[in-house]
Each structure stands twice: as C-alpha cells, then as structure tokens.
Design goal:
The protein has about 220 residues and is an alpha/beta fold. It has one domain: Rossmann fold (3-Layer(aba) Sandwich), CATH 3.40.50.300. The chain contains ten helices and six strands; from the N terminus they run βαββαβααααβααααβ. It has a six-stranded parallel β-sheet with strand order 2-3-1-4-5-6. α1 packs across α8 and α6 runs parallel beside α10. It starts with a strand and ends with a strand. This is Sulfotransferase family protein.
Amino acid sequence: MREIVIVGFPKCGTSALIRGFEKEDDVHVIRSPNGSVDACFPDRTNLPDDKLVVHKCPSYVLSRTDLEALRDQVGGADIVLCFRPLPRVLLSWHNMHRRIARNGTHPNHFVHREPEFWANCSVDDYYRKSVHRFRVDLFFDQLTRVFPAERITVVAQERMARSVGNVVKVLKGEEPAEPEQRRTYVGYADRTEVEIDPEILAALDETYARFLDRVAQSGVRTLV
C-alpha cells in the first residue's frame, strides 16, 4: 500500500490538493472523525490495500516530536510540503483568523482565548504576535531531519493554482492530464490592498529566501 501525507504549510493550497486527490477513483483519503480533511494522527485501521492512501496533517501543530511520531505511524509514506510566498500567507491567515474571531466559529480555536485582539488586530500586529508560525525554514529543517529527502516533494501553491489536477497526477506518478491555466486563481491574499510594514516584509522575504535556499540544497523533488 502506497501512502502520501500532505503536511502544509497552512494557507498554501493543502486543502485544495487533498480534495483533488478525493476526485481520483484509485485514491482513499483519510478524514478526521468529524469529517475534516485535517487529520493529524488519524485512525489507520481497515485501509484499502488496492488504493493510494492520502491524508493531510496540518503542519502548524508539528514539532520535532510530532514529526517523529508521524514517521513512526506512516512508515514509508511520501511526504508533500506545500508552500507560497510568506506575505501572501500572512494576509490570508490574518483574514481567516479575524473572521473566525468575529463570527465565533470553531469554538476550540486558539483565537477565542483573546477574541478582541484577533478580531480587530492589524496585519502588522497579527504578524508580531504570530511570528513563530512563519518560520518555514525551521520547519523544513526539522522535516528533512526526520524524513529522507528522496521521500519529500515540495509543491508551490502557484503550480496548484494553475492545475490542482495535474499536480495530483504527478504526485501519483502519472502524466499530467489537462492543460494548465495561463492565469492562475486569484484569492483574497492576492486581491487585498492592505499594506504591510516594510520591516515585516523584509523579515518575511528573508525567511522565505532561506527556505527556498534550503529546499534547493536538500535534494528534494520540487513542483513549481
């Protein structure tokens, strides 16, 4: 039985990717007990032997200990890491968490511990309080220490925006099946006109450059 685990990063197309896998007849997607596509350490009983098994494990909950536990659980699974430029992640995450705080949805979500802050914070204040969530370079380091490079594929959100279906086919080991769009999907983070403090932009760009450099040096497969 072959298995693929999608590990993030958040707001980088992971949900779109796993839903793309669900459209494939020869794929079995593991969901959490509540039906969510986020399934950190899901029940793995009665998995089909004749299908590719895929599940999405949200990267923002993964410490080195969690990654080692995931490795022990999934054995020789292939690992897929989705990414996109960090300013776009910041804008999208800020919008989502502010909406959750204002609407009162997802009652166990961390934003409800300080709802006034998260409901009204600026993009810059959001970043300053959440800076640890953007260290994609450190997460990638941890990932490559736990899983061998030959089992890791790094996928750009921009590639998925052109054709999720083609990314799914390539990850399955098949030929792309559809023409890719010249103009990619434009979401909230790309439409917004919110300005980000130049110092924060510089910090995000520096972290993102380190991440890309480490990906280039690591020997992992890339789909960009």
